[in-house]
Amino acid sequence: MGLITPEPGLIIWQLIFFLLLFFVLAKYAWKPILATLKEREGQIEGALKLAEQTRAEMALLKANNDKLQAEARADRDQIIKAAKVASDKMINDARDKAAAEGKRIIDDAREAINNERNAIVAQMKKEVVTLSLDIAEKILRQELNNKPAQEKLVTELVSKANLN
Q: What's the DSSP call for residue 4?
């Protein structure tokens, strides 16, 4: 039962040790512990301020990034539009050039056809003239072999000729 009811000597010794421990802790431990807690509190405050500052910088960077992305999209759209205009122009130029080339080829073909037709007509005329001369020569040779027919032809030609 001695534990339940403490004796006065034990209480005094416990009080002396408690005060001694309190004095040693107050002199050597409380000041460094409090200084360390204050320092830690300052570090935490600094870290919170740095985090807030970093958060603000991140928001600013995000805003700048969004702005740069919007500018990049606008530039991309402008480049795509310019490329589309250039490709449309190239297609139209190529189409016009092809049409002009086709017209030139058709005109050249028509001219070649006309030239060939004229050459064929000239060749046919030449062949007709040659054939006509051959026929006329054969007819004249046959007519000139006959002496009375020859004299009759000469007189006939002289009478028809107008001699002035």
A: T
